[in-house]
């Protein structure tokens, strides 16, 4: 089955919040079509009718406290495998695990994130979902990543030096050496040393990706594994 592209849904009953989330998505990825739904019935009908590449939804819709849970269950029944990012005012400490059990890909608590964190999370999920699609015919394998184990020199990608701060180098080395295993957020805290938070790890990984794309615009070898961590999926 071919995964639908360029069409996402924002399901949020608060219109200013819906407009903000949809606006952030459009600003980050102008090619995406963003459908906005404001109640469970309209959203459920759209999910049955449309093919979305990704869904962003709130748990509470109007007076239905757990409407979002019903919508996730509806997505699961359709066997569409559509990635879901939950954005809710419900406390993350309680609901993150519940949403994970329902196969939601990630959870952001309202008022505790900004535009940058939302976009980073959204794009990480989008990349991970697209990485699951059937691969194109294999091209000639690029040169493997070259690392200096003592971090005295910058690592090389396809023969070009990558300009990286020390923490990003450590994360790169950890992901590469542990491939193809997933490296959890908790394990990466030991590499980051300070700022032991998921958003801080994501920022370092974002810096790492940007540096690699400076020398290789097609670079896509660091895979986000929602709710768990990151994995090196490139050549070795």
TrEMBL record:
Q: Which GO molecular function entries does the Swiss-Prot or TrEMBL record give? A: phosphorelay response regulator activity; transcription cis-regulatory region binding
Q: Which SUPFAM superfamilies match?
A: C-terminal effector domain of the bipartite response regulators, CheY-like
Q: Please indicate if the UniProt record lists Transcription as a keyword.
A: yes
Question: What are the coiled-coil residue ranges?
Answer: none
Domain named Response regulatory: residues:
7-125
Q: Which InterPro entries match?
A: CheY-like_superfamily, OmpR/PhoB-type_DNA-bd, Sig_transdc_resp-reg_C-effctor, Sig_transdc_resp-reg_receiver, WalR-like, WH-like_DNA-bd_sf
> Key word Cell membrane present in the record?
no
Q: Which residues carry this modification: 4-aspartylphosphate?
A: 58
Which Pfam families does the UniProt entry name for this protein? Response_reg, Trans_reg_C
Instruction: Name one cellular component (GO) term.
Output: cytosol
The cross-references to Gene3D superfamilies, in alphabetical order and at most eight, read: 3.40.50.2300, Winged helix-like DNA-binding domain superfamily/Winged helix DNA-binding domain
Keywords associated with the record: DNA-binding, Phosphoprotein, Transcription, Transcription regulation, Two-component regulatory system
Q: Which domain of life is it from?
A: Bacteria
Tell me the Gene Ontology biological-process terms attached to this UniProt entry.
Answer: regulation of DNA-templated transcription
- Name under which the protein is recorded: Transcriptional regulator
């Amino acid at each position: 089955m071919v995964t639908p592209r360029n069409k996402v849904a924002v399901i949020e009953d608060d219109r200013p919040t819906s407009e903000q989330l949809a606006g952030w998505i459009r600003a980050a990825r102008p090619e995406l079509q963003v459908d906005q739904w404001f109640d469970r019935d309209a959203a459920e009908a759209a999910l049955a009718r449309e093919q979305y590449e990704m869904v962003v939804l709130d748990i509470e819709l109007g007076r239905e406290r757990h409407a979002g849970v019903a919508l996730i269950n509806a997505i699961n029944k359709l066997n569409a495998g559509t990635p879901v990012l939950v954005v809710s005012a419900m406390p993350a400490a309680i609901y993150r695990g519940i949403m994970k059990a329902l196969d939601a890909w990630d959870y952001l608590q309202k008022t505790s994130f900004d535009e940058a964190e939302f976009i980073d999370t959204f794009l990480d999920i989008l990349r991970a979902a697209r990485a699951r699609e059937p691969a194109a015919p294999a091209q000639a394998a690029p040169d493997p990543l070259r690392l200096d184990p003592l971090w005295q020199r910058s690592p090389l990608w396809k023969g070009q030096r990558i300009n990286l701060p020390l923490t990003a180098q450590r994360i790169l080395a950890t992901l590469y050496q542990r491939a193809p295993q997933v490296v959890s957020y908790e394990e990466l805290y030991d590499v980051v040393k300070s700022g032991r938070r998921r958003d801080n790890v994501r920022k370092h990984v974002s810096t790492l990706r940007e540096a690699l794309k400076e020398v290789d615009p097609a670079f896509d070898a660091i895979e986000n594994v929602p709710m768990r961590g990151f994995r090196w999926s490139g050549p070795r």
